[in-house]
Amino acid sequence: MGEGSHGQMAVVAFSNAAEIGKKVDEHLRRVMPPTPEGTYLVPLEQVRFSNGEGKIRLKDTVRGKDVYILSDIGNYSCTYEMFGFTNHMGPDEHFQDIKRAISAIGGTANRVTLMMPMLYQSRQHKRNGRESLDCAMALQELQNIGVSTLLSFDVHDPTIQNAVPLVSFENFYPTYTVLKQFLFDEGAEIVNSNLLIVSPDSGAMDRAIYFSGVLGVDVGMFYKRRNLQTVVNGRNPIAQHEYLGTDVEGKNIIIVDDLLASGESVLDTVRELNERGAAKIFVMVTFGQFTAGPEKFDALYADGKLTGVYCTNLTYVPPEIQSREWFRSVDMSKYIAKIFYCLNHDHSIGPLRNAKARLRKLMQNRWGK
Asked: Which of 40, 188, 228, 322 has the fewest CB atoms within 10 Å, counting from its CB?
């Protein structure tokens, strides 16, 4: 992080992002001027009344500062008491708290930047028939109440930024940080040992091509033919898998995707690759929700069919998942701190996006490759 002109900074981290917020603050305090409070985090109170209504109270001034709001709208571990029972906060409630915080700022900040690593309602970014346009409506609401910059990771469809043309919308990818940890854990020689990048479906193909280009290896893709005449648990079941690409026999595989919800798509891909004779199989995802639990991953790991799952800490992952031997958590706090630092100093964030150049430099400096 270089020197440059900058204004005062304040970070508002909600309880849904408290852990990563503390880490971001630690990184910032290493490179930013000391503050009288000894932290860049603004203390806040997230009030919940017994009927479920809420409010946000900032416990320190942010007047004239660049304010960076950090919120994980996917964190379902946050709870509150309502009418005598415990209620888990969903994305809608987290998003409402973001608006409350902006209201509490009251227009006194120099700039308001919102970091939602998992973009709110990003899977509802387009209309099919008589459907709501939730993501576009939410972004326009944020634009109207004073957010100057929106930051997110691995947005399902980055063209959603067209909904808010007057806001700076920056979409980042965790490619460098995830691959850096993968190379440290597995050794850089794995890149030269028959490594293959595989997309579990056509939707993740662009990501797979980027990973293959960064590492200089081949890429493959699975095509899922679904039975559109049947609906099981709200979805059309997969009738058959078709594989397109280089032969996988004896190769180490990295399956890449943005979101792991129930994990069924990734698990099916792991099984198909094992049937085709793959060696080690790794999974890399930006957001790991594990809505169906860890048991099926446990079974594949116990059978030697799955080597590891690399997942960022950009959204909440339950402790029972994090304690699994096959789970590898990738800390993104330093990257977020660098983004905040660059924006606060009005530096270009272009170099932070160039995973290929940074990985090449890493491999040359550490492994001489």
From this structure: 228
Per-residue model confidence (pLDDT) at position 1: 47
Give the residue, 244 or 232, on which the prediction is more confident: 244
Give bridge partners of residue 177 from the DSSP assignment. none
Measured distance CA(12)–CA(162) in Å, rounded: 26
Q: Which residues pair with 255 in a beta bridge?
A: 198, 283
The span from the CA of 11 to the CA of 344, in Å, is 11
Tokens standing for 56? 């946000």
Distance CA 246, CA 243 (A): 9
Residue 30: CB atoms within 10 Å? 9
CB half-sphere exposure, 151, CA atoms < 13 A: 24
Which amino acid, residue 364? Q
228 is written with which tokens?
């559109």
Separation CA 289–CA 260 (nearest Å): 6
Residue 4: pLDDT over 70: no
Look at strands 327-330 and 308-312 and give their pairing: parallel
28: left (phi over 0), alpha (psi -120 to 50) or beta: alpha
Measured CA to CA, the distance from residue 309 to residue 329 in angstroms comes to 8
Distance CA 95, CA 142 (A): 10
Instruction: Identify which of 218, 149, 208, 214 has the alpha carbon closest to the alpha carbon of residue 362.
Output: 214
Q: How far apart are CA 287 and CA 284, in angstroms?
A: 9
Angle, helices 355-367/175-186, rounded to nearest 10 degrees: 20
Mean pLDDT of the chain: 91
> Exposure string (b/e) for 324-345, b if CB count within 10 Å is 16 or more?
eebbbebebbebbbbbbbbbbb
- Whole-number Å distance between alpha carbons of 42 and 197: 42
Residue 299 has pLDDT above 80, yes or no: yes
The three-state (H, E, C) secondary structure of 68-88, written as one string: EEECCCCCCCCEEEECCEEEE
Strand ranges in 49-162 using DSSP code E only, listed in sequence order: 54-58, 66-70, 79-82, 85-88, 111-115, 149-153
